[in-house]
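Morning. Coffee machine broken again, so started the prediction first thing and wrote up yesterday's gels while waiting. Chain of 129 residues, entered below exactly as on the submission form.
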Amino acid sequence: MSRRRPIEEIVCEAYNEDPTRVQRVARQMPSDETFEGAALLLKAMADPVRLRILYALTQQPLCVCKLATLLDSSPPAISYHLRILSLSGLVKVRKEGKFACYYLRNRHLEGTIRLLVERLSPSAGGEKA
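Came back before lunch.
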């Protein structure tokens, strides 16, 4: 993990019209740990199957067998992806009778996931990345 320099020492030597510009931005930057955590979440989401699972869970909680049916996949494959999503903190599991039902851990991500997928959907006129 890198250590940040004190903000007062952060100066752009190449362009000096406003020597405090970089310092003002540096004061607004979240911690390195925040970016590391965000990168881990994005890595967990950066698989088409996992993103499909997350999108499905924005609609409602589902069990492994329902996700497997929905995504035309095997329950072991879905379980593998759910484990990664669970370890990353994106989903949580709750027993409902004899089944385990998966939910999004953070409801605030619902809008982000929907927006990302729907905006990039060709049917919505989105561009392909």
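The mean pLDDT is 86. Going to sketch it on the whiteboard this afternoon.
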